[in-house]
Amino acid sequence: MGMTYIPTTLSEALHLRAEKKARPLAGGSDLMVQSRRGTALAPEFPFPVMIITSIPELKGIKLGDDGSVEIGALTTPAEIASSSIVPWHVREAASGMGAIALRNTATIGGNIGNASPKGDLPQPLILLDAEVVLSSIHGDRKMLLDDFILGSKKTALGEDEVIKSVVIPKHDFTYLFYRKIGMRRANAISKLSLSAAAVVKDGEILDFRAASGAAGPKVIRSREAEAILKGHMIDEIPELEEKFLDAWNDAISPHAMPLYRRNTTRRMLSYFLSAINTGAEEGIIREEE
Ligand SMILES: Cc1cc2nc3c(=O)[nH]c(=O)nc-3n(C[C@H](O)[C@H](O)[C@H](O)COP(=O)(O)OP(=O)(O)OC[C@H]3O[C@@H](n4cnc5c(N)ncnc54)[C@H](O)[C@@H]3O)c2cc1C
Fold first, then answer.
1. pLDDT tens figures, 213-227
2. What is the torsional sign of CA 15, 18, 22, 28?
3. Of 164 and 43, which is predicted with more confidence?
4. What average pLDDT does range 188-207 have in this prediction?
C-alpha cells in the first residue's frame, strides 16, 4: 500500500509529485472507485497518493482581461453549473453530470485527468479550444486540451505535473447546441453527447464547430468537416449538408461509432444546421426529447 500525503500548498504538492511520484486525489469519485476493496473497507492504493483538496491555488473561477475564463482544477460541476461567467456549453455539461452528491464532490481536474471517453466536461471544452495549465516544480506549461487527452484514459500529464486549471478563450456564438444522451437522468454516464456552435453574420457562417463525446477513444472534433461550412452563406447549407455529415462520419473510426451513434449524431447535427438555415432566433437551439 502506498503512502498518503495531504499537501496544503501547490508548491508542497509539486514537490511531493516530483520526489514521491504521489498521484493526485481530488474528489476521489474515479480513483476511489477504481481502488475499492469491498463494502465498509477503505480503498487501498498500490501507489503513493496526495489528497489535493485543500490547495487554494487550484480553486476558483476567474475572468481574464481578454474575456477568457480560468477554472481551477478543484472546481466542482455544481460550482461550474452555477457560475454566470462559465461559457454555456460547459455549464450545460456540468449540470448534467451524475447526481447532486457527485456534482458536489467530483472536480474538473479529475474529469480531465481520468480522460474517460465518457467524461462529460472534455467534450464542450474541446469544442471551445480550451487549454489546460500544467504545473511542476519547473514552472507552468499550457496546451490545448485536445492535445492533452491522447486517448481513452491516456493523457500527456508529466510524472511531475499537476493539472492547475483550464482556460477557455472568449467566444460570441450566434447559435449554440448541447445534448447528452444517457440511460436516465441521475447518475447516467453518457452514451453519446454532442455540442455544436456557429457564428453567423449577415447570413455568412464565419465559424462552425462540433464535438462528439462518448463516441470514440477521445472527443471527436473534425476541423476538415468544419471547413466545409465555414465561409459559406446559410442559404448554401442544404447543398453542403450531406458533404459535411459525410466528412464528420469519416472522421470517426467505424468500430467506435456503431450505426445508432452515427445516425443519432447525424440527426442532431442536421437539426442544428436546419435551424441555422431557416433563420432560427439567435441563441440556444434545443432539440425536443
Ligand atoms: C456514481 C458515479 C457517477 C458518475 N457520473 C459521471 C457523469 O455523469 N459524468 C462524468 O463525466 N463522470 C461521471 N463519473 C466519473 C467521475 O465522477 C468524474 O470523472 C469526476 O469528474 C472525477 O473527478 P474527481 O475529482 O472525483 O477525480 P479523482 O477520482 O480524484 O481523480 C481522477 C483521476 O484524475 C487525476 N487527477 C485528479 N485531479 C488532478 C489534478 N489536479 N492534476 C492531475 N491529475 C489529477 C487522479 O490522479 C485520477 O487519475 C461518475 C462517477 C461515479 C462514481
1. 988 889 999 999 999
2. positive
3. 164
4. 90
Classified as helix, coil or strand, 90 is helix
Q: How far apart are CA 229 and CA 240, in angstroms?
A: 7
Q: Cβ(110) to ligand 1 under 6 A?
A: yes
Q: What is the whole-number distance in angstroms between the Cα of residue 112 and the centre of ligand 1?
A: 8
Query: For the ranges 38-47, 115-124, 173-182, which has the lowest average pLDDT?
Result: 38-47
Residue of 170, 195, 169, 194 lying closest to 257 (CA atoms): 194
Domains defined for the chain, CATH in brackets: 4-168 (3.30.465.10), 175-284 (3.30.390.50)
Check: CB of residue 240 under 8 Å from CB of residue 228: yes
Apex 130 CA angle, 181 and 264, nearest 5: 20
Give yes or no for residue 234 CB within 6 A of ligand 1. no
Give the pLDDT score at 56: 97
106 CB near ligand 1 (under 6 Å): yes
Whether the CB-CB separation of 124 and 90 falls below 8 Å is answered with yes
